[in-house]
Amino acid sequence: MTTQDTQPGAQPGTELSTDAPALAFPPGFVWGAATSAYQIEGATDSDGRGRSIWDTFVGEPGRVVNGDHADLAVDHYHRYRDDVALMAELGLTAYRFSVSWPRIMPEGSGRVNQAGLDFYRRLVDELLGRGIEPYLTLYHWDLPQVLEDAGGWPERDTAARFADFTTCVHEALGDRVRHWTTVNEPWCAAFVGYASGEHAPGRREPAAAVRAAHHLNLAHGLATQAIRARDPQARIGGSVNLYAVTPATGAPADLDAARRVDGLQNRFFLDALLKGSYPEDVVADLAGVTGFDFVRDGDMEVVSTPFDMLMVNYYSRYTVSGSAEGSSSASAAPTGAGSPWPGSEHVTFVRSGRPVTSMGWEIDEFGLYEVLQRVALGYPAIPLVVSENGAAFDDVVSGGVVDDRERVAYLYAHLRACHAAIAAGIPLRGYFAWSLMDNFEWAWGYGKRFGLVHVDYDTLRRTPKASARWYSRAIRRGGLRGPAE
């Protein structure tokens, strides 16, 4: 295999003329796609479901673009059988989805809504019947509103309630679900939910956001222990959204900005989950925001309870500046939002000249290789899974077809990075494209499409895009030939 074939970011080489892949992935590599409950299910007032913080958030004027909401979303709650059939048609070997906490425990704890559990029983049975492995995520941001009313994630009790919820879900599904992810992207839940206020619950309280981050980490550890106590054979994952972080220049202020952002985005969670401690420099950065007296004796041992796979979500690279000259650069937060960087509000995010998605996120597949390598070399050995990776583009439907070549190129480049990581000895076990289908994209509403499958929001008709067909061919080949193959 040539250097060009194995280096992420390289231009595609000459592709094979046969159906065999030019870049073959190992046998057993997991090929999946991912969604989350609130973004696709709809049925927010059906069958005993309670209210979540997102139900409240979308009802507040100005929170979501165009005032969009997820009452219907893409109606996966009623169309799940057709959606699973579509997954099977595409050849997915695994499907990552989340369960709705308020659908299962409407009051956040205590009473269990069996109708909600029954929905997930049916979904899991449908997946298994089609030969698709369920990868279940327990928390993807839809906290029951009643728990937020009691203080939300800044309150320690929320982590205890999450452990109870975990036990409930495992009791119902543990006989059929082998792969479990605890908390999806705790950075977003803490700092975008409680510091910048861009996500539910929309609070702008930096000190509360830091407490929330710790309690989300604690919830991961408690959930891990709860599952392990019931099933020692379960495969448990912790989830982090990682970014490669680059200083805009070699100036000391920019180098410090990169250290700060890397610390709060990446190391705060990686060090906690895999080393059992918070980085000293990050704690120092946050000294003007909050003390760490909310971290009790024994907490970090719980947070770092051994688990089986690190779920890595990757979308882009950050290039950052800490100098006054960087103030004219684009901020990561939209106008009117607070900063999601407590203690480092002065840091700005600058363009590096790379192509961008319709989200304005720079496309940098080498960053995926970089973060995987960083975990493999800098932390205790653990299998890795790319649990989210994808891009939003301004898809156009023409003649019933969506020729999303930009997304095909994006997937191809990032899967090449995955292949290069495996070739370098990094223990990467699987890849989940984000997202299976277009859906409610949080505060962006329905204006940003990440899906492999196009959804007509008027009719809810599903149409596989060119990217879905390309990904399907890659799965069936067990590897890559080229972006046009």
From TrEMBL:
UniProt enzyme class: hydrolase
GO CC entries: cytosol
Protein origin, superkingdom: Bacteria
Catalytic activity as recorded in UniProt: Hydrolysis of terminal, non-reducing beta-D-glucosyl residues with release of beta-D-glucose
Entry's Gene Ontology molecular function annotations: beta-glucosidase activity
Binding-site residues, substrate: 39, 140, 184, 315, 434, 441-442
Residue runs in coiled coils: none
Active site annotation, chain numbering: 185 (proton donor), 388 (nucleophile)
EC number annotated for this UniProt entry: 3.2.1.21
UniProt keyword terms in alphabetical order: Carbohydrate metabolism, Cellulose degradation, Glycosidase, Hydrolase, Polysaccharide degradation
Entry-linked InterPro entries: GH (IPR017853), GH_1_N_CS (IPR033132), Glyco_hydro_1 (IPR001360), Glyco_hydro_1_AS (IPR018120), Glyco_hydro_1_beta-glucosidase (IPR017736)
One Gene Ontology term from the biological process aspect of the record: cellulose catabolic process
Family affiliation: Belongs to the glycosyl hydrolase 1 family.
Protein name: Beta-glucosidase
Organism: Sphaerisporangium krabiense
